[in-house]
Specification:
Layout (H helix, E strand, L loop, with lengths): L1 H6 L4 H9 L7 H11 L3 H8 L9 H12 L1
Length: 71
């Protein structure tokens, strides 16, 4: 996670807060930078957050998002 945060030019704490949901609406440039570092298009990010099975507190969906960010 440290490498991802530094490559995206965000603090590791900011990335942790985004992953844990403590930052409910991260700034667009932050999302774009993280997506770029992870090799994801913004279309892929949008599709992931708008999946029909994605609930606000869906544990399995939140885990998959965290796993994607951490890799």
């Amino acid at each position: 996670m440290l490498e991802t945060a530094l490559d995206a030019r965000v603090s590791p704490e900011t990335l942790r807060k985004i992953e844990s949901g403590r930052v409910a609406t991260p700034a667009f440039p932050t999302v774009a930078a993280i997506a770029d570092v992870l090799g994801l298009s913004l279309d892929e990010v949008w599709a992931e957050i708008n999946r029909p099975d994605q609930g606000v507190e869906s544990g399995s969906s939140r885990r998959s998002a965290r796993e994607s960010l951490a890799s």
